[in-house]
Amino acid sequence: MNTIMTSIAAASTGSTNLQLLSGINERFLRSMSHNLRDHCPFLRSMTITASTTTLGDNFQKKCPFGRALFHTNEDSHVLLPTSEDSVRTAHFHNAADVQTKQPKQDHGVDILGLLKMKNHSSHKPAGLSKEHIRQKSFGNLIDNMKKNGTYRTFNHIDRKNGSFPLADNRLDLKPSHISSSTYNQEAQRDIIVWCNNDYLGMGQNKLVLEGMKNTIDSFGAGSGGTRNISGTTSIHVLLEKELAEIHQKESALLFSSCYAANASVIPTLMKIMPPGTTIYSDEKNHASLIEGIRNSGAPRKIFHHNDLDHLREILSQSDPEVPKMIIFESVYSMDGTIAPIKEICDLADQYNAFTFIDEVHAVGLYGPHGGGVAEERGLLDRLDIVSGTLGKAFGMYGGYIAADSVLIDSIRSTCPGFIFTTSLPPVVVGGALESVRYLKTHGEERAIARENSLTLKRMLREAKLPLLESESHIVPVIVGDAKLCKLMSDALLTKYKIYVQPINYPTVPKGPERFRLTATPVHSIKDITYLVQSLSKLWKEFGLSQ
Ligand SMILES: Cc1ncc(COP(=O)(O)O)c(C=O)c1O
């Protein structure tokens, strides 16, 4: 510091006061003198002449502002002179988040840069060491998860196109499409997958695969940009039209996933809607909805799961003037419960609330055109915003929302999670387009899936296995202990070649850990029978009551 200030002083030989600092560029000089004089009584009262060579020392010793200027703490950086655009407020940042930028120096000395280097070399950083944090925070977290059975391991489940629900459990990581004469592949072959969200087997539908092949031949691999930067192809727009149609809405908007849609659309809605808009959220809402609600910062009230009396009670306590939005799902994926959509919409009408429904586990699978439970129950026009996924019953990947065009246009124009990300690859969009179109006009898969699901539930009941009753296609079987759930899942795979992953915390609360079974149209009656027999044996082997 002294060296620098001394060199500044030494650089000056002129007769006017400010020529003392003539080694630095003109703009810097002006701004710095302004800032310093504004803040520093010492400097204000000082007469600086060409012979003032102790300025640096005195400035640092006596003036608190001078000390702050040369402090290592990033936050205490003084605003240095800027060109017009060097301190810009990014549109989507809070003003408080915007950091001051250091100016580009045309010539002269980058004082703060030099000071930082000097301070870096002479100070040990304060606070806990990185190693300590690595051990205590990250290491302990993983150790604890391993101890309490919530640590997650991923099996390598290579689905076999044309033979779903069969898959190979790959014990190595050699690419399965490369011939086994080249690689010694280690795999447990032809396991039966019972926990898949490809609810209708569309992942191996011939039209979908053909659509993907054609799209890749025409468009190549990636989209090459965000939606704004050449990432909107004609098939992105066509897919949005189809999605809007199945939900009988004016418009739809694609997202990278429905997680991304929920998590980013809700905060954007809350920014657009009047301040104070209050969210009413079902307590069992998915993590993506909760993240969106939390990040919105909007006032929120949680109602008991599917509990209309509770929802009515908290709505009735609200200020009628305050705008409201009720956020809920149609099918809850872990318990298999279905929301009383009509009654929720009735309450929404009574209390003038918007409705936002997540139909992720229902789109494609429910309703004559795959428009979800709302379509099946004739309630599409009662819902303001629908979110859905292409990754489950449609057998592809990606998420979307559908709503009135003014609403969609507002989200399209302002939602960071839509704007600032590469658009879905055309190959995914091409496959999804085929899948959505197919399920719009074909009900066969839906009918068989429903039948299989009913058969599975009936057989589980007959075997006295702990089925959690539900009206949807989701079939939970409660184990009730995280470690046991993992052990039983492993045993099911190694001994019976059945794959059902354990569902533990945080996907479900601690206590009702479970298997979550999904019967699809590609499961046969033989598969269902074998599953129930194997589960019965497993329950006996683990000494569990039936
Ligand atoms: C209710 C619900 N909403 C949203 C999502 C996220 O959907 P996606 O897989 O498209 O990100 C999920 C994922 O399982 C979900 O269960």
* Strand order across the largest sheet: 4-10-9-8-7-5-6
pLDDT < 50 stretches: 1-31, 49-53, 64-92, 100-112
Distance between the termini: 78 Å
Taken from the alpha-carbon principal axes, the silhouette is globular
Spell out which ligands are present.
pyridoxal-5'-phosphate
Relative helix content: 40-55%
**Largest β sheet strand count, sense and barrel closure:** 7 strands, mixed
What would you say this structure looks like, in words?
This protein has a 7-stranded mixed beta sheet with strand order 4-10-9-8-7-5-6, with helices on both faces. Strands 1-2-3-12 form a 4-stranded mixed beta sheet. The protein is α/β, with parallel strands linked by helices. The protein is built from 20 helices and 14 strands. It is globular. The N terminus is likely disordered. Helix 11 links the parallel strand 5 and strand 6. Bound molecules: pyridoxal-5'-phosphate. The site of pyridoxal-5'-phosphate (PLP) has 14 residues, from helix 10.
